[in-house]
Amino acid sequence: MTANIKDVARLAGVSVSTVSRALGKGPVSAEVRRQVEAAVKATGYRPNLSARRLRSQRSQTIGLIVADIRNPFFTAVSRAVEDAAYRAGMRVILCNTGEDPEREALYMRLMQEERVTGLIFAPTRATIGGLRAQDFDYPVVLIDRAAASGEFDTVVLDNRGASARLVDHLVERGYRRIGGLFGSTSTTGIEREAGYVAGMSAHGLIPDARMIAPLAPAAEDAALAWLAEAERPEAIIVSNGLFLLGLFRAARRLGLSIPRELAIAGFDNEAWTDLVEPGLTVIEQPVETFGREAMALLFQRLKTPTAPTRTVMLSGTLIERASTHALTRARFKEPL
Amino acid sequence: MTANIKDVARLAGVSVSTVSRALGKGPVSAEVRRQVEAAVKATGYRPNLSARRLRSQRSQTIGLIVADIRNPFFTAVSRAVEDAAYRAGMRVILCNTGEDPEREALYMRLMQEERVTGLIFAPTRATIGGLRAQDFDYPVVLIDRAAASGEFDTVVLDNRGASARLVDHLVERGYRRIGGLFGSTSTTGIEREAGYVAGMSAHGLIPDARMIAPLAPAAEDAALAWLAEAERPEAIIVSNGLFLLGLFRAARRLGLSIPRELAIAGFDNEAWTDLVEPGLTVIEQPVETFGREAMALLFQRLKTPTAPTRTVMLSGTLIERASTHALTRARFKEPL
DNA sequence: CCCCAGTGTGAAATCGTTCTCAACGCATGA
DNA sequence: TCATGCGTTGAGAACGATTTCACACTGGGG
Fold it and tell me: What 3-state DSSP class applies to B182?
């Protein structure tokens, strides 16, 4: 079917090794190079990457395992990773785990079988604790989620700081009874919850954090139930864009006026968050930077394998919008 | 580093061929199978996919070339494709072209080099005309965009029908001066424009279609300029979710009341379209079906290579929202 | 007792590259 | 004249699997 290097060699009247050199960067005479190029064009030859990888023992492939590409955070990250990879002449294998530890294990095996050059991974909480650097034949960079062991290069947001910042912001605007919805499957959710709790405590307020599955409908259900309780919160913080969607939908369904009856703030500055009424206050994550930094850490690690591991902590940007406008305390009986 | 099949064979006390058979589905005694499995576990052996692909001449890989994974349509499609692929024991190589014909060519070469089993491709208008089935060593399924030649299996929306449907809907609601913004780089944009023009003509109305680059800012700019013109349209139809974003943003910036001063309708039922005020009328595309159908066509083609090509035309669903509520004609001097 | 079919096994070829090594031609310098 | 070295080339050995082929063993039927 497809021509191989032998066909090219025959047509060019040179040996296979010479063709290989001509196509690579070996020393060949200009004359031969011309002939080989002509033969390549004539035969439509394209090198077989499997053969090349097998022989050279370099896959030029990096793995990218994320929870769900439909989460806009991961969409943007993967785009950045791919761009960087292709620019470096590498390919990307993208896998979605759906936060399922079994699929994580499956895909880690796959990466091993592909003999990837490196892996960028956003593991669930369930697997992250068991990861050991020495179990991998290639460097691993964690993204969005950090392992306690510190064995891996990592790119994360300053999750605690960002959460605390949101709490500060709400308190400053006059809110006191502030609840939080956080993802239960990732360390990121946990960290953001911790930041929220710390922030609340710092203000002498009682935290009320609830952990849920990282899906928009889960957030909507949780919010609906919560807002039906007697002691309804004045504000709710959520830990990602999907929850923002669910929470906003719940508020809408209950006909709550935002921020008068419920203030909303969260993570991920998605395109729609400033188009809804009111616009939503969010922590914007530097998504492209996540991808680029992860690739940078990976390449750095490949260059200097024994260097101490590094954690790049990126900070988010608070974008204040109308969903957290100053609370008018009139309707509350309690004093400040 | 990693153990290979030879190591396993040595440890299990059998030949390499027997190991291969034991791991595959060849006939081996239960005894040997046990030993091999033990040896695999002990050595941590994982087959080398490059070697396997080279020898077996089956890459078990399908290529997926889309314009931009950040476009929610392609996000959903790619998720569906991946799920189907992994379920069939195949991997996916995902590439983003950014609607750049050069990158399309680059990635088509890459697919050839990877010796993919099949390709799912959403090409730009610039390349789609030049595609010839015989130039590929593997089946190609076009998705979202159709080639005139009919040489390829294809999954598309009934673009003309859907566009005309939007026009009908708007006319029914009392709108007459209806403009349209369409993507210039894809046949889909062209088809939707054609459906719009046909729909307008059918109602005896004068179409005004403008073709722009498939990016949200382009739509915003175009809309801002358009709405500043003397003869401002009563309604604008757009051909995808990114344009919807741009158009809505433009209307917002101009402080236009929707639908009183400008009605809006378009394609792609993105999560936010029913959260903004007013909710946006859209044609919903069965995105998961796109991915699944494309995979189905691909597998079908692999099974029966010479069967005539098929085009699966999916129909969209009109979701009526407040952005196209009935026009009150009071403010217009012209008679209907 | 022989033949045959079926089962299980190993040796060796093969996939398409890259890479090592030896060798060639030719110019240069001793 | 001969050794040295450089630039260029080809033969052939890998890489790690699958697959073909031949063969040994078993048991059943003639």
Answer: strand
Q: Work out the minimum CA distance from B177 to partner chain A, whole angstroms.
A: 26
CA dist A157 and A94 (Å) reads 22
pLDDT at residue A326, as a whole number: 85
Tell me whether B92 touches chain A (CB under 8 Å). Answer: yes
CA closest to D10 C1', residue: A15
Is there a contact between B275 and A48 if contact means CB atoms under 8 Å apart? no
Q: Within 10 Å of residue B94's Cβ, how many Cβ atoms?
A: 23
What would the pLDDT profile of B308-328 be if each residue is shown by its tens digit? Answer: 999 999 999 999 999 999 876
pTM (predicted TM-score) = 0.92
**C-beta of residue B201 within 8 angstroms of C-beta of residue B211:** no
- Give the pLDDT score at A327: 74
The per-residue pLDDT for B1 is 67
Residues 243-282 of B with CB under 8 A from A: 245, 248-249, 252, 270-272, 275-277
The arithmetic mean of pLDDT across residues B202-213, rounded, is: 97
- Tell me which residue of B222, B197, B224 sits closest to B212, measured CA to CA: B222
Q: Which of A53, A72, A277 sits opposite B50 (nearest CB)?
A: A53
Which residues of chain B neighbour A78 with C-beta distances below 8 Å?
69
**pLDDT tens digit sequence for B60-107:** 999 999 999 989 999 999 999 999 998 999 999 999 999 999 999 999
At residue A334, the pLDDT reads: 46
What is the rounded distance in angstroms from the CA atom of residue B226 to the CA atom of residue B124? Answer: 26
Subunit contact A2:B92, Cβ cutoff 8 A: no
Length of chain B: 336
**What is the DSSP code (8-state) at residue B176?**
-
Residue of B nearest to A78 (CA): B69
Contact A94 B94 (CB under 8 A): yes
Q: Which residues contact B7 (CB under 8 A, 6 or more apart)?
A: B43, B45
| Tokens found for residue B243 | 């344009």
pLDDT in tens, B135-175: 999 999 999 999 999 999 999 999 999 999 999 999 999 99
B43–chain A Cβ distance below 8 A for any pair: no
- B chain contacts of residue A50, beta-carbon cutoff 8 Å: 49-51, 53-54, 59, 114-115
